[in-house]
Specification:
Blueprint lengths: L7 H12 L1 H9 L3 H9 L3 H9 L3 H10 L2 H9 L3 H9 L3 H8 L4 H10 L7 H4 L6 E3 L4 H11 L7 E5 L5 E6 H6 L23 H11 L3 E5 L5 E6 H18 L13 H27 L2 H6 L2 H29 L8 H31 L2 H31 L4 H27 L5
Parallel strand pairs: 1-2
Antiparallel strand pairs: 2-3, 4-5
Helix pairs in contact: 1-2, 2-4, 3-5, 4-6, 6-8, 7-9, 15-20, 17-18, 17-19, 17-20, 18-19, 19-20
Amino acid sequence: MPSSHTDLHPLLARDFIVRHPGAAADCLEGMAPTVAAGVVADIEAKECSEAFRTLSPATALDILESAEPMAAGDLLLNLPPSRAGAILGGLTATQRGKILERMRSADAGELRALATYPPESAGRLRDPRIAVFRATMSAADALARLKVAGAGRTGLGLFVINSDGGLVGTVPFHEVALARPDTSLVSLVQQPLVAVSPFAPRSEVVETMQRCKLAMLPVVGPGNTPIGVLRLSDLIEEVGKELSADLVSMTGASREESALSGPGFAVRKRLPWLQVNLATAFLAATVVGLFEETIAQFTALAVLLPVVAGQSGNTGSQALAVVLRGLAVREITRRQLPRVALKELIAGALNGIGVAIVACAGVYVWSASVGLVLVIGTAMILAMAIAGVAGAVIPILLDALGQDPAQSSSIILTTVTDVFGFLSFLGLATALSSLI
C-alpha cells in the first residue's frame, strides 16, 4: 500500500499505462513534453513500452529529448527494433550520442545500426516529426489537439492510424477544418493509400510522387507503422543542392569547397584533377602531332582548328548538363542510355548542319577554297554529332560503374571532343588535301 497520497499518483499512472496503453498514449500526446517525460520517468520502461510504441514519432521524439538520457535509452531498448531505430534516427547527433553513451556497448551498437539507412534512401530523407491521429478520433478532437499540443508538423495533412498503429491514410488539414465536428477521421481518409519503405531509393520516391501527383509521401516501417514523411518541397531543395554541387565538381573542384575556403584546401582538392587534365591535354596534342605535315602544308588548318574543337566542346557540354540533371532528379536511368544517346546524336548532327552552313560561308569568303569549305563543313557535323553522343554516354557509364558522374565527366568529355574534333578535321584535310 502507498504510504501517502503523494505515492498514489505514480501508481495510478502506472496502472493506467499498463492496462490502457492506447488511451494512455492519447493522454501523453496531449501533455507538454517535459510533463510527459516526468510521468514515464516514474514507471519502468518495460511497462511503458506498449503505450510508447503507439505514440506518434513527433511525440516520442519530444519525450526522449526531455527525458534523462538513461531513461530515454531504456525506453528505446524496450521498443520493437524497427520502431526504436526509426525514433533514434530522428534525434540530432548530439542527443543521440548522449543516449547511446550511457548504454552498454552492445546495445548502443545495435541501436546505431537500426538508425542507419542507406544514403539517398527515404529513411535518410524523411522528416520523422509527424503527427499521428487515431482513426476513431473526431474532427473536433483532432483540431483541439492540433491547437493544444502543436502536433501539426506534417505541414499538409494528418496521418491516421488504426488500433494496431498501422497507417490507414492521410487527411488534408482543410478537410478536417471544414468537416462536421463529430465526423471521424477515418471517414475523411484519402484513398488509395500510397506510402514507401524507408529503404526505398530516392529514384523510387520521386517516381511515386510524380506518378501519384503527391505533395507529401508517408514513410512506413514494419506493420505499416508511419515513421516519417517526405515532402516534395524538401526533395526539390535536396536536388537543388545536389545540382549546385555538381556544377562545382564538373570543373574538377571539390563539392566541399566554398568561396571562403583556404587556399591550401583549394589546392589539395583541385591539383589532382588539374594534373589529370594536363595528361588528357597531351593526348589531344599527340593527335595534332600526327598531322604535323598536313598543318605545315596548309597553315589555314591551324587557324580553323580551334573553331571545330570549340563547337564540338560546347555541344558535348550541353548534352552533359542535360544528362547530369536527368540523373540527379532520376528522370533517366541506365536503361535509357540508347534512347538518350540517339537523341543527342541526332540533335548534334542537326545542330552541326546549322553551324556548318554559317562556318562554310565564312571560310569561303576568307579563303575562297571549296576544298577547305568541304573539310570544315563535314568535320563540323561529325565532331558535333560525336560530341553529343559522348556528352550523353559518359555520365551514364560512370554512374553505372559506381563513380560520381559529375566529378570527372567534364574532363573525360573534353578529351573526347578534342580528340575526335581534331581527328575529324585534320583527317579529312589529309584525305582531301588535293582539293584544298
